[in-house]
Amino acid sequence: MWGLGRVTRHASRSVAPRALGSAATRRIGATRFASQNVQDLWRSVGAVCFDVDSTVCEDEGIDVLAEHCGAGNAVKEWTTKAMDGNVKFEDALAARLSIIKPSKRDIETCLENHPPRLTKGIKELIEKLQANNIEVFFVSGGFRLMIEPVAKQLNVPLRNIYANTIFFDDKGDYAGFDDTELTSRDGGKPEAIKVIKKTHGHNVIAMVGDGATDLQARPPADLFVGFGGIVTRQVVKENADWFVTNFSDLMAALPALK
């Protein structure tokens, strides 16, 4: 999510809309663009749900926290497995937290020393979405305590965060995590989208993210936009309805403000 070093692989901008079929793309030279159908669907959404790590923010928050706590290398291996879809997310989450065992103070000092690094263009994109009366949510396998400062910075209501909760004892030491949170397990993001549709009344929702767990959100998400601006995961690139490497593409497809 933010912190100690940017892990970036440059990716060519392309579209890989497996769900919508080959007619959903047109090819010009070596670049793929979203078809009119995909762009129309993007413009029709009532809400957009963003992953946070390596999407809204440049780094993987749990990796930054692990590095801060002296457990960086062991945790990064689990993060890569989880984001590539090679292990169940709940197993990776439990394994990483059992290695880090972060106290409340650890998280506070991590945020102080390594404040959020927003991905280029995300602030402008969210502002334009909100100006078009499109509601923004954060649906993340990260930790609520680390995501709330990002939401405040981007004017996203805290009630619109679906993320994981860490428990602490009376001394502030690590005491486990809430495994009833929807995003604490594999397949949890689709469940979060269902809840958002039901409780907020949005008929058309887009999910934007970089990982395999984000890809799982469609359906019930009506559109999945894969983001490769920080890291490209092949499974996401190949199966996204629209794959972008910068947020300006999504901004350009929104209606112009009057």
Automatic annotation (TrEMBL):
Pathway: Amino-acid biosynthesis; L-serine biosynthesis; L-serine from 3-phospho-D-glycerate: step 3/3. Its EC number is 3.1.3.3. GO terms for biological process: L-serine biosynthetic process. It holds the Pfam family Hydrolase. The keyword Amino-acid biosynthesis applies. It comes from the Eukaryota. Its cofactor is Mg(2+). GO terms for cellular component: cytoplasm. InterPro entries: HAD-like_SerB, HAD-like_sf, HAD_sf, PSP. GO terms for molecular function: L-phosphoserine phosphatase activity; magnesium ion binding. Transmembrane segments: none annotated. The active site is at residues 51, 53. Belongs to the HAD-like hydrolase superfamily. SerB family. This is phosphoserine phosphatase.
